[in-house]
Amino acid sequence: MKSLLAFIAALFLLTPAATMAATPTVSPVTAADHVLGSPKAKITIIEYGSVACPICGRFSATVMPELKAKYIDTGKVKYIFRPMLTGVPTIAVAGTRLAECAGKDRYFDVVDRVMKGQAEFYAWGENDMLARPVLLRIANEFGFNEDAYNKCVLDAAGIKAINLANDAAMKAGVNSTPTFYINGKRFDYKWTGIAEFDKAIAEAK
Question: Which CATH superfamily groups domain 4-204?
Answer without folding.
Answer: Glutaredoxin (3.40.30.10)
